[in-house]
Structures are given as structure tokens and as C-alpha cells.
Amino acid sequence: MKTLHILRHADALPPNTAINDFNRSVSPLGQTQIRSLKGEFFKKNYEIDYIISSSSIRTRMTVEILIHGNQELEKLTHFYKELYNSDLNIIIKFIKNTPNHVKSLLLVGHNPGITNLVCNLNSNQEKHTSTCELNTFELHINSWEEFTFHESKYLWNFTPKLI
């Protein structure tokens, strides 16, 4: 049994011609979203053994604020440029390449890939994944290499309230 937590990055500053998309940071609203998620997520007592994330500034900031103060999780966090605005096939490749000792994976990325992943795991129900929205699935697999959309159970969703 494995657990997959899928998180879309927090709200980012608006697009700007002076800053390319990859370098957009989290907005003040996004920082509030992350703090709200952090409080709710850790109340649920979910464990995270490993984190993979896009290396964009907004995903990096989302992860860093979420796990701030947890040195153990900081050591288990991996940022990859290939996950920046990646499609579903690339995301699946990263999931399948997760080390097998990992029981609980947090994946942080961007739409449309994150929404496509959530929809495929959740019986193809169409849904838009909001900024800083977390979806958690229990996967009925023994190894990450066995990952498919058919071996999952939807456990939990957190969507920050708009302020």
C-alpha cells in the first residue's frame, strides 16, 4: 500500500513581462493558502516520506513554506526542472521512479498535469485543481513501478478558502 499526495502550487504573482513564468513567486494570498494547508494537513496525521516537485520558484516556495522547520523532510525533497508544466506522461514517469522504500509521496506541480493526474485517479471525474489544492489517494500497489490509475482510492481533499 502506498499513499500519493498531489499538490498544485500556491497562488502566484500575476504574469509579468519582466519575469518569465518559471520565476514567478508565490503571492501573499499563496502564502496564506500554504499556511492554511499546513495546519489542516498535519492535523490529519498523514506521513510524507519523500517529496518531488517542479523546480519553478512558485512550486519551490510552496514546498519550502509547507515543510519549514522539518529538517528531515527537507532532506527528502527533490526538485526537478522536468516537472515544470509537464504533461501527464512525465509525471507518471517520476511517480514510477520513486524509490520503493517510500510509502507516502508528495508530488507538487502545475496545471494542467496536476489536474489530469487527479482526474485520472478519481475515476476520470472532470475537475479543475485550484491553487494550493491537495488531493490524497491510497494506492493498492506494493511498488511505485506498479502505479496505474485503476488501483487507487480517493482519501482526502483540501482546498484553501478564498480570502
Q: What gap, in angstroms, lies between the N and C termini? A: 37 Å
Helix content: 25-40%
What is the SS-derived class? alpha/beta
The rough form would be described as: globular
Task: Describe this entry's structure for a reader.
This protein has helices spanning 28-43, 57-67, 71-75, 88-96, 113-121, and strands at residues 2-8, 50-54, 77-80, 104-109, 134-139, 152-158. The mean pLDDT is 93. It is built from 5 helices and 6 strands, in the order βαβααβαβαββ. Helix 1 (28-43) crosses helix 2 (57-67). The chain has a 6-stranded mixed sheet, sandwiched between helices. The protein starts with a strand and ends in a 5-residue tail after the last strand. 34% of the residues are buried. The longest helix has 16 residues, at 28-43. With 163 residues, it is an alpha/beta fold.
What features would you highlight for this structure?
alpha/beta, 5 helices, 6-stranded mixed sheet, single chain
Can you summarize this structure?
This protein has 163 residues and is of the alpha/beta class.
Layout: helices, strands, pairs:
Elements: E1 2-8, H1 28-43, E2 50-54, H2 57-67, H3 71-75, E3 77-80, H4 88-96, E4 104-109, H5 113-121, E5 134-139, E6 152-158
Helix pairs in contact: 1-2
